Amino acid sequence: MKKILNQPESYVDEMLSGFTAAHPEYYEQPDRRVIVRAGGSVQGKVGIVTGGGSGHLPIFTGYVGPGFLDACAVGDVFASPSAEQMASAIRHANGGAGVLRLYGNYGGDVMNFDMAGEMVEMEDDIATATVLLADDVVSAPKQEAEKRRGVAGMVYAFKIAGAAADTRADLGEVTRIAQKAADSCRSIGMALSPCIVPQAGKATFAIGEDEMEMGMGIHGEPGIWRDKLKPADAITDEMIDRILADHEFGKGDRLSVLVNSLGATPLEELYIMYRRVKQRFDDLGAEIVMPLVGRYATSMEMTGATITTLALDEELERYLKAPAACAYWQV
Amino acid sequence: MKKILNQPESYVDEMLSGFTAAHPEYYEQPDRRVIVRAGGSVQGKVGIVTGGGSGHLPIFTGYVGPGFLDACAVGDVFASPSAEQMASAIRHANGGAGVLRLYGNYGGDVMNFDMAGEMVEMEDDIATATVLLADDVVSAPKQEAEKRRGVAGMVYAFKIAGAAADTRADLGEVTRIAQKAADSCRSIGMALSPCIVPQAGKATFAIGEDEMEMGMGIHGEPGIWRDKLKPADAITDEMIDRILADHEFGKGDRLSVLVNSLGATPLEELYIMYRRVKQRFDDLGAEIVMPLVGRYATSMEMTGATITTLALDEELERYLKAPAACAYWQV
Questions:
Q1: Locate the DhaK domain: which residues (chains A, B) (predicted)?
Q2: What number is the ipTM of this complex?
């Protein structure tokens, strides 16, 4: 297993120890598997909490910070945090104005976050609401969009919900805006090589030297189709076509685009893809605003990339551009 | 070859096209292989120029920006830019106060940058100076430190030289400070897997499933010794011990530390290493200031990491903390 670690069992706790030691200006760890903003929750502001498995940095816990999230519950690699950890994160995010649970649509996370919501409403009288990210267009057909997985679109939802909460909007309004951001995201992924989960110690899937997996999930879930490796422009076109089939963009539309490495794929290759993405939206007459190119939502050392579009209206664009800061993204 | 690209021959040009399209607020491309700050050179400020092979993003060209570099000459993957490209970068960096060439100690780069310096001094009457980064402690013994390779320490030198130039210090003074930053950096690398150069289409070296290469260069140059893969703390200790043997740190000393992924190694594993780095310097009574953990100087999709220390005095710490902005690092 070619990874830099001590014991698989201590991977996440040692990671969090280094993470908070490296960035004390952004992160505090009030509980074993909970990360909160330095300084804690903000009184009178709707708290925004997320959670999910480890192995996706900067997702999830990296996006805790001013203008982003208030707290995050941290699971083992690719595993849901417990309901207790999520309840603790909600309590730490609470500034007296309610807490929005904003996370990806995965069974274990949904079950535990629902339970955590009940716990804090009963025990602590904290009002909560939920917005699920389900942006992976190929993980279920459009008529069953609620079954889709949440992937890199989470990054946009965190940014926009965080900015909305910063205006001191109430829980209903922050929830509305976060839901609008979630509904405006479309993502698709592709992979060239798997990753290694520390506790398993082996690759999450096998793939030939000349193959690529299209529609891959961020935990190594099988893709939708496997193909011979194609040139970058053909791969990018296929991904963009799938997104456009689900959400049309045309003349005068404004959007943001995230071209994201799943881990190993270098920035150089993301820019080769972004070049093509830009050509495609230029051809449609749509304008890309504040593009993101880099590692925003990863699957450890997986080779591959995802493309996410965020359709903008005036409100979403304003929140996207509002000031925010964490260790990985500063606006 | 598991890479996302169109043709190997167009890799760098297509990458630059996407790079400038994604970040027009930071970068412009006035010449085919030259990247300059958006808005061009700053009148009356010493220009700072770098250059080198592609495949190391964010190094080199990513660090063009306010408080960092003024221009960069961009070579093919792991290949020096030409003297003409370097001369063009120097001309574009020139704001009338002279230009510092600040780059890594590699034969081809040194030869071409020296030639470029002669060209602009003769043809354009631009005064230039040179500071070479040679921070890789294991690439040559201490008594031949001038033979060492330049690796991730470049990131610190770019930051500090850029801040010094922003004070409108003259060329001699900017050169003095940049040299001090270069002399204060120590780096060491280790790799678990090679990378693939697009034009070669195959791995830069072969390594066993249970082996690691210590003292690896950032172009896949062979390491100094090969060992069985060890636990993260043992690897980190061995790297820190090599640095400490070259540059002592003790009680009350201040330093910055960069724990850098060579590409594929995930952030999670860098934090596991940083946790140990922090313990080691805590034990010495030395204080880490503004640690950097992430991908700052890569070798495409190589798996592995480097550790760099920057010994600080009051002057270097002030310049390290001065405002600066590029697409990858904002202070």
A1: 7-329
A2: 0.97
